[in-house]
Amino acid sequence: NAGVTQTPKFQVLKTGQSMTLQCAQDMNHNSMYWYRQDPGMGLRLIYYSASEGTTDKGEVPNGYNVSRLNKREFSLRLESAAPSQTSVYFCASSGLHSQETQYFGPGTRLLVL
Amino acid sequence: GDSVTQMEGPVTLSEEAFLTINCTYTATGYPSLFWYVQYPGEGLQLLLKATKADDKGSNKGFEATYRKETTSFHLEKGSVQVSDSAVYFCALGGNTGFQKLVFGTGTRLLVSP
Question: Is A104 in Cβ contact with B43 (below 8 Å)?
Fold first, then answer.
């Protein structure tokens, strides 16, 4: 069991470039999430997918789009990267019930110049 | 809305010292409460959780008790080790159906030999 995997691990972009962060889970979870982590800010939810076929905005969705490709995969796209999007991005997954544990990937460190 | 407040860090302790990290919450109803830990360079992982009032979660020598009367879920460990150095996040979720987790800002623990 790989759990939650993310690619790439590290990426450098120039302002205005686009990229897609990939996330996959092999735990048959219904729900998936994208967070960003910035110093002193804790974790902030960007988008989530409560179940396959649905996506919803979180706390900080501006500048991002997501796709729930199938039950396993949930991608995050930056259409036109900005320096303010320099961060560490985490994908997570969980069962549908809110008492269930969220399992996190190892993160993608993104630097936008 | 729901919120979680954690003590500011960093918390600096010597090995074998007693640890308390305070966490209080504001929520409607009866949320589930979680402590997650993030070791350097890694994603978050669940440390312990409690799903109803007066429950005690425990794992790896850490404990936290769900106190509804004081809306608190303080993390404690009797004797910390250098390997416990990490960032600790308190979080709350719902108790029925799907609900996003709300995270605190995290508390960094540094344990010296």
Answer: yes
Cβ(B91)–Cβ(B36) below 8 Å: yes
pLDDT at position A98 is 64
Instruction: List, edge to edge, every strand of the sheet that includes B75-77.
Output: B19-21, B75-77, B62-65, B56-59
List the beta bridge partners of residue B62: B59, B77
Dihedral Cα A37, B105, B98, B44, nearest 10 deg: 60
A27 in contact with chain B, both atoms CB, cutoff 8 A: no
* Distance of alpha carbon B87 from alpha carbon B98, whole angstroms: 26
DSSP secondary structure string, B52-65? STT-EEEETTEEEE
| Tokens at B13, concatenated | 């302790």
pLDDT tens, residue by residue, A75-101 = 999 999 999 999 999 999 998 776 778
- pLDDT, tens digit (0-9, with 9 covering 90-100), for A41-55: 788 999 999 888 899
Q: Is B107 on the interface with A (CB under 8 A)?
A: no
Q: What chain A residue is nearest to B9 in terms of C-alpha separation? A: A40
Contact A90 B43 (CB under 8 A): yes
Residue B16 burial (CB count, 10 A):
11
Residue B30 reports pLDDT greater than 70: yes
Could you tell me if A89 lies within 8 Å of chain B, comparing CB atoms? Answer: no
Which of B90, B101, B107 has the most A C-beta neighbours within 10 Å, making it the best mutation to test the interface with A? Answer: B101
Do the chains contact at A104 and B45, CB–CB below 8 Å?
Answer: yes
